[in-house]
Amino acid sequence: MSKPALDLSAYLAEQENKSFLRFLTCGSVDDGKSTLIGRLLYDSKMLFEDHLSALEKDSKRFGTDGDNIDFALLVDGLEAEREQGITIDVAYRFFATDRRKFIVADTPGHEQYTRNMATGASNSELAVVLIDARKGVLTQSRRHSYIASLLGIRHVVLAVNKIDLVDYSQETFNRIVEDYTAFAKNLGFVTMVPIPISARYGDNVIERSPRMPWYQGPLLLDHLNTVDVESALSEKPFRMPVQWVNRPNLDFRGFSGTIASGRVRPGDKIVVAASGRASTVTRIVTMDGDLDEGIAGEAVTITLADEVDISRGDVLALASARPEVSDQFSAHVLWMTEEEMLPGRQYLLKVGAKVVPASVTELKHKIDVNTLDHSAAKTLALNEVGYGNLSLSQPIAFDPYTDNRDTGGFILIDRFTNGTVAAGMIDFGLRRATNVHWQALDVNKTARSGLKVQKPAVLWFTGLSGSGKSTIANLVERALFADGRHTYLLDGDNVRHGLNRDLGFTDADRVENIRRVAEAARLFVDAGLIVLVSFISPFRSERRMAREMLETGEFIEVFVDTPIEICMQRDPKGLYQKAMAGEIKNFTGITSPYETPEDAEITVKTAGIAAADAAAEIVAYLRAGGIVP
Questions:
Q1: I want to staple 260 with a disulfide (CB 3.0 to 4.6 A). Which of 256, 312, 400, 406 is the partner?
Q2: pLDDT of residue 436
Q3: 537 a catalytic residue
Q4: Is CATH 2.40.30.10 what the domain over 324-435 is classified as, yes or no?
């Protein structure tokens, strides 16, 4: 009875010691990605009898290969995928050989699902780019190859599939390899191995094809078994993003995470990258006991000799090889949502376990992923790739993405929906940013406002054009001025004559308009003033950004709630009439959206109240809140 247990233990030990490879299949529509993965699963004997039985039944119902087994159905699991014969979502499958374990991501070929392909590529070390031998290198073949390169994949297999449909032609194969090599020469791939295959019949996938005696290169599975993707990561400088401060009792305090790169041993001098605080590693703890050395890919808990302030999101690094630390950097950005990217809009940036507010301050260019040409752009649309500068609310530790995918890659998150809107790859830090610090002044905000006998604040008036914002704001300032208060009014039209005269009315320009005004308002608050800001400011995101620039209680949102029908009746400048006639583009309420406030401190419904009464109501609020005595 003991022998099976011994055999099981030996088997588990053997599996544990195998190397591991994550790879993806990518390329254009109908190039055979799903079929190839199905063939690998089938030929590597990774399917149970019930899987085979179900596959045979599904092939009769959904199959596209007559009476033969349709291997694509092994990974096309969604009903829509089977009905259309395409891949929509990323499908992950596990299989193993005697030498290695694999996770393969089958990614969709349609352009509209490019973001799904990028998701699969972000976790892969190798890409199998499939090319239909009949069609050659297509637009989507180039797109996926460029994105794979951008996301740090350095090993590529060029699988020229459906070679059986061109009579196993060596000439066709050579021409495709030549075309692809010319395109990919500047993509930075370390290895690019071309293999002619037929996923449908298994030619050169696991067994050498007798139909192509002219091909003497490696078989697909042999190459996947032997390609070296591990040694480079472990030889890079040590990095470990902290995922959890492990404190089970008063006697133990460790820092848990997965080692992103390099090696670490007890006795090594390490630092917390952002703060620069140093200490010495005392133990490397795992569930199976302490390690003499931790290497890239291992999940460990590190204990230190000193009490060092470390939190989730901090990065541990060797003292002799630190990452960069900055609140600004240049990066490539792959936009992944239908709502366009707007420079100046604040998103949440997540790198490792660290999350900080960030915005794209300047989009330098966008990249044509088919030709790799650069073109000027102000925004990015779905699936577009751009290059620009980002600014963060606080410094973070990072490496260039080409050096370390874990500490150099990030995602951008919409602050309202929590949806991922972009994937980013850091290029380099803007070093000037590390030399710019806030200058401490002897006369501060408290002193200035105390001299004026008032609390500084921003009254942010928002509403449609013609709602009465400027009129009410002007009346409020008159009342405060008459009472001896120190104020300043920033009006949308007036500011566009000077500070923002270079901005138009596109969504991107509106975001930048509000960002500049919010920065100006913050300076006025620092001067101890009560600032009245009268702007349409149509987007909640930018109003929230302005609020978060100030201390609690200093931002008072005043929603001048006037129905658009009344605004159109007033139309003091004739703007609505021109917008309805198509003479004014991007006009809020007509051809551009207005996002109403959700939690404004003050709401004024001007349809049922006079402007003077509304102003009196706002001044009363300021007195009740202690802004003015």
A1: 406
A2: 54
A3: yes
A4: yes
